[in-house]
Amino acid sequence: MQIRRRYPGKSAPDIHARVDRVMEDVSRRYSLHYEKDGKALTGRVKKMGITGTYAVVEGEVTVDLSFPMLIPASLRKKVTEDIEEKLDQLFA
Fold it and tell me: 2-86 maps to which CATH number?
């Protein structure tokens, strides 16, 4: 599943700083391991087959999520909706 949000007029470093906070929160909430690369403006969360990566470019962030079949659909939906909601409010 891919989530893409555009933030016209916002710089890549500014978007990355805010997305970093979102991913730190998500990783804590769902007990995921979080790694980030501030220079490349990317990051990754993972745990037992669950993987999520993000990349920031000027004015945009793309999050790719991958869940194994063993993860209940309700949890997949909850994680996805949580990330979408936080990205929608990134600059609110």
Answer: 3.30.310.80
Q: What is the DSSP string of 31-89?
A: T-EEEEETTTTEEEEEETTEEEEEEEETTEEEEEEE--TTS-HHHHHHHHHHHHHHHHT
Whole-model pTM above 0.85?
Answer: yes
Q: Where are the domains of the chain?
A: 2-86
Per-residue pLDDT of the chain (92 residues; tens, 9 = 90+): 899 999 999 999 999 999 999 999 999 998 999 999 989 999 999 987 788 999 999 999 999 999 887 788 888 899 899 999 999 999 98
